[in-house]
Amino acid sequence: MVISYTYNHFLIHIIKYSFLLNLFMSKEIHLENIKELNLENIEDVLSRIRPYLQIDGGDVEAVSIDNDSIVKVRLLGSCNSCPLNLMTLRAGIERTLMLEFPQIIRIESVN
Length: 111
Fold this sequence. Notes:
Helix 2 crosses helix 4 (about 85-100). The longest helix has 24 residues, at about 1-25. The chain starts with a helix and ends with a strand. It is built from four helices and three strands, in the order H-H-E-E-H-H-E. A hairpin with a 4-residue loop joins strand 1 and strand 2 (about 70-75). The protein is an alpha+beta fold.
């Protein structure tokens, strides 16, 4: 029963991220549409993916931006302890932010 639950939970995450990837990969990037890299604009983009995290009791917040265009975020709630949080960070959060802000080099999670 535990294996079945874990497998089903994993499949739900895969479906969720596939939807997010299709949603944001279909967006064309034009140089004139690139937003300024600041915490307010990052929170704006995170607010679009936040409902998908909140379904499972998780959340994310932008913490800081380094001079090297490295964005630090904090995973909250169930995302913090989820075994798939690296997948959430890379396939969901990082890809979404990097599509909106091509100047971002990397997304890092902090506690």
